[in-house]
Specification:
The protein is an alpha/beta fold and about 400 residues long. The chain has twelve helices and 15 strands. The mean pLDDT is about 95. InterPro entries: Amidase_Cbmase (IPR010158), Bact_exopeptidase_dim_dom (IPR036264), Peptidase_M20 (IPR002933).
Length: about 400
């Protein structure tokens, strides 16, 4: 199993990797993602796992019980293969590779599943191309409608449906039929933080996901000459934007929440011109739905007040918002019990990052998450990392959990 895991990881390492930064560009319906999908199909075929694809780009492979054996609801495992722009190697692919390796390990143990095991790879989890996080699992569960997805555009203006068609996909009219077979979902993920490092533990479980979302802030003003226009005569949306960024930082710190302006688009984007428009995207996260709403509301209020003083305009649009998710306590306890012999008592941690697991849990599917230690805590960066020894322990943990559920 260890050799297979490391070989899979070596196979994935060069796909979509930037020679300049060492980071990954694995956006959906691009050449890199198509190569990853081909790799996944090859790995499933090598294991005699029957592969299915829905029209939205999600993939699922089945390890079925022997013919004639009892078959209860399936256990779904997996994660995603796409990355943020200039992202790390582990966020997503670690869960997919570990799921395949866990199947290998169970077979080595002689385990015969009494329930089907489904290995899934979701599309556009990061929202790095079309702006909606977990888009594949949202379409799969019906949380996002095909009509809403059809209205999405990437940064170059390419419509979602056109990008899918160029990659050989046809949109599905609704949730995939195989979803009805799923009784529960397990997702393994690299930890995005240092909780396990502080505890000196290789693996943990997730108990909840903080509510989070993305809001578009459109600041409008008046384009003008950078030299000929007096400072007091300007209607500069960049100034309003800058003060709003500072307000978001201050309010998040005061409330113990998270607020980040990480993407901005400026028009006309000239060095010697006062801009006419600044569009920026706020990523905000809170420890409760109420705290998140209060944070975003306060940032919008202060931005609007500043716009009034600057003679500019501000419009705020929610583009992707996910409420608080509590993972199934019974399933989490059962997974924790399955891990106890090997790991002792496994901690249950909150996740401040969104995951496909959160979408499936919100749709009513009992869901649990496993974390693998991240020695630096860095994520969404080329520096993201996990030690191979910890990754292999994660495979054992996932296999132990699966064995308890399907054997």
């Amino acid at each position: 199993m260890a050799e297979d895991f490391e070989q899979m990881w070596r196979d994935l390492a060069p796909v979509g990797r930037s020679s300049a930064s060492g980071g990954y560009f694995r956006q959906p319906f691009t050449a890199a993602e198509t190569e990853l999908r081909g790799w996944f199909a090859e790995q499933c075929a090598a294991r005699d796992l029957a592969l299915e694809a829905d029209g939205n780009g999600n993939l699922v492979a089945t390890w079925a019980p022997p013919a004639g054996d009892a078959a209860g609801p399936a256990v779904l495992v997996g994660s995603h293969l796409d990355s943020v722009l200039d992202g790390g190697a582990y966020d997503g692919p670690l869960g997919v590779v570990s799921s395949l390796a866990a199947v290998d390990l169970l077979r080595e143990r002689g385990v015969v599943p009494r329930r089907p095991v489904l290995v899934g790879a979701f599309v556009e989890e990061e929202g790095s191309r079309f702006g909606v996080a977990c888009l594949g699992s949202r379409l799969l569960t019906g949380a996002t409608s095909p009509e809403a997805a059809a209205a999405l555009r990437d940064r170059d203006g390419v419509p979602f449906l056109d990008a899918m068609a160029a990659a050989g996909h046809e949109p599905a009219p609704g949730p995939a039929a195989w979803l009805d077979r799923v009784g529960c979902f397990l997702e393994l993920h690299v930890e995005q933080g240092r909780d396990l490092v502080h505890r000196d533990l290789p693996v943990g479980l997730a108990g909840e996901i903080w509510p989070h979302g993305r809001w578009r802030f459109d600041f409008t003003g008046e384009a003008n000459h950078a030299g000929a226009t007096r400072m007091e005569d300007r209607r500069d949306p960049m100034l309003t934007y800058a003060m709003t960024v500072l307000a978001a930082n201050k309010q998040a710190r005061l409330a113990g929440q998270r607020a980040t302006f990480g993407r901005v688009d400026v028009a006309p984007n000239g060095t010697n011109a006062v801009p006419s428009r600044v569009t920026a995207w706020l990523d905000a996260r809170g420890d409760s739905d109420e705290a998140l709403a209060a944070l975003v509301g306060e940032v919008e209020r202060q931005g609007s007040q500043r716009a009034d003083r600057d003679g500019t305009g501000l419009a705020v649009t929610a583009e992707s918002v996910s409420g608080a998710v509590r993972f199934d306590t019974g399933l989490t306890a059962r997974v924790g019990a399955a891990l106890a012999d090997r790991f002792g008592e496994v901690p249950v941690l909150p996740s401040l990052a969104g995951h496909d697991a959160g979408v499936l849990a919100a749709s009513g599917i009992p869901t649990a998450m496993l974390f693998v230690r991240n020695p630096t805590g860095v994520s969404h960066s080329p520096a993201e990392h996990a030690e191979t020894a910890d990754c292999l322990l994660g495979v054992h943990a996932l296999a132990d959990a699966l064995e308890a559920l399907v054997a």
